[in-house]
């Protein structure tokens, strides 16, 4: 991590992450969120109703983070995160927790999921828009607790863009709002690197959903996708080349209450557009698709076009576990999926991930799993299988790869707990 400085209003000077992809291993990492323990979900609800105070809630969050980091290390993961244990949701953390000033309201529907439930968008009642909390806060809290590299998921500017209507808010124009969103998102990423994150990924779950025409989610429609991609590229343009190389973009059909919001939308409409984003790498859901190999074919076609145009092709981490299902994937099944995908994606550009975050919203009933605690156990079992399966795929592809295929030089993928890193009590 390069040296950083603090300037006005707590802003940080550019900080560079560790150099990525150096050793001869396939990269593997989680997307972001993990199921919160039932005890933490209860503590949050009790805090909202005044039954427990801020100190008790903080203690429950601290326990969940320590448990998350310890169990992540036990899976052999080369890079870990706090699993978003301190967040209400992936989409609301920049707003903080104090809405009593009336600036943030409940907005329109964001997505209707296949099981019939829906989620809404927070809405800005008046300008200007400002981040009230930062993803870097989570990194700062987790960094002293583990010697393993940390990754951090952040909100996309496109998700935040849905908070204000096209007409703006009176004298606060839409253009001014979007400029504030871009500035805030870029600072969110810079602060995360400065706090000690080795890698940052932008949650772009709305990308696939944008291709749907759905009267229940009036913001969606094919015209939305181009604007979303433009906003993400505006954020990436604010970063240094070293930072951009360590920033990924994640796409999936959603995962909440074990249900998806856009699994029926054809990937063929999204993937060609997705690779117009100038990110360092991508995390693409595939395991829960009807035909995972088709996803790899679509991605490989785009990477070949990038290579022909002399652009540097990005890394692509393919989803090999399905967080919405309690059925465990075996390491051998994961190995086979990666090896099949490598027929279409150059082995030096491939890696693995989970299809989605395991629990993007804090209060998540997990009906297919039976309980949040069981879902949490299943999540870590899936992660351990992914790490082992990726190591098996690396062994099988070792004679095929034509270049470095590794994860940032951060120790051996699948190394036993206690050798790859340590969690501090």
Summary tags:
8 strands; alpha/beta; 425 residues
Overall shape: globular
- Rg value: 20 Å
Secondary-structure element string: HHEEHEHHEHHHEHEHEHEH
The number of strands is: 8
Determine the mean pLDDT: 85
Structural category is alpha/beta
Assembly context of the chains: single chain
Helix content: 25-40%
Structural features, described:
The protein is an alpha/beta fold and 425 residues long. Helix content is 36%, strand content 12%. It has a 6-stranded parallel beta sheet. Strands 1-2 form a two-stranded antiparallel ribbon. Helix 9 packs parallel to helix 10 and helix 11 crosses helix 12. The longest helix has 26 residues. It starts with 37 loop residues before the first helix and ends in a 28-residue tail after the last helix. The N terminus and C terminus are likely disordered.
Summarize the structure.
The protein has 425 residues and is of the alpha/beta class. Helix content is 36%, strand content 12%.
């Amino acid at each position: 991590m390069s040296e950083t400085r603090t300037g006005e209003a707590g802003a940080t000077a550019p900080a560079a992450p560790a150099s990525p992809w150096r050793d001869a291993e396939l990269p593997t990492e989680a997307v972001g969120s993990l199921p919160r323990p039932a005890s933490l979900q209860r503590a949050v609800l009790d805090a909202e109703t005044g039954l427990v105070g801020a100190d008790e809630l903080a203690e429950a969050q601290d326990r969940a983070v320590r448990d998350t980091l310890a169990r992540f290390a036990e899976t052999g993961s080369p890079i870990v995160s706090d699993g978003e244990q301190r967040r209400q949701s992936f989409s609301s953390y920049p707003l903080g927790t104090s809405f009593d000033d009336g600036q943030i309201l409940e907005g329109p529907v964001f997505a209707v999921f296949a099981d019939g439930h829906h989620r809404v968008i927070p809405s800005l009642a008046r300008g200007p828009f400002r981040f009230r909390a930062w993803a870097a806060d989570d990194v700062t809290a987790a960094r002293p607790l583990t010697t393993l590299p940390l990754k951090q998921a952040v909100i996309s500017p496109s998700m935040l863009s849905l908070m204000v209507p096209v007409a703006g808010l009176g004298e606060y124009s839409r253009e001014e709002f979007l400029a504030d969103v871009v500035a805030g998102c870029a600072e969110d990423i810079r602060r995360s690197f400065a706090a000690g994150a080795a890698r940052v990924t932008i949650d772009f779950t709305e990308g696939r959903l944008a291709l749907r025409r759905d009267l229940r989610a009036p913001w969606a429609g094919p015209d939305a996708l181009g604007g979303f991609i433009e906003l993400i590229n505006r954020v990436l343009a604010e970063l240094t080349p070293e930072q951009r190389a360590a920033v990924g973009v994640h796409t999936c059909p959603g995962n909440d209450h074990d249900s998806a919001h856009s699994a029926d939308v054809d990937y063929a409409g999204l993937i060609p557009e997705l690779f117009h984003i100038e990110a360092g790498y991508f995390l693409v859901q595939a395991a829960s698709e009807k035909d995972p190999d088709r996803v790899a074919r679509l991605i490989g076609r785009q990477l070949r076009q990038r290579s022909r145009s002399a652009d540097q092709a990005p890394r692509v981490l393919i989803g090999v576990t399905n967080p919405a299902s309690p059925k465990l994937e075996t390491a051998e099944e994961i190995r086979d999926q990666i090896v099949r995908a490598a027929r279409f994606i150059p082995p030096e550009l491939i890696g693995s991930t989970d299809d989605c975050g395991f629990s993007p919203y804090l209060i998540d009933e997990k009906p297919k799993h039976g309980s949040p605690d069981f879902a949490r156990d299943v999540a870590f079992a899936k992660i351990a299988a992914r790490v082992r399966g990726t190591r098996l795929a690396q062994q099988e592809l070792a004679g095929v790869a034509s270049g470095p295929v590794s994860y940032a030089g951060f120790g051996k993928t699948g190394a036993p707990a206690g050798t790859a890193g340590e969690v501090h009590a």
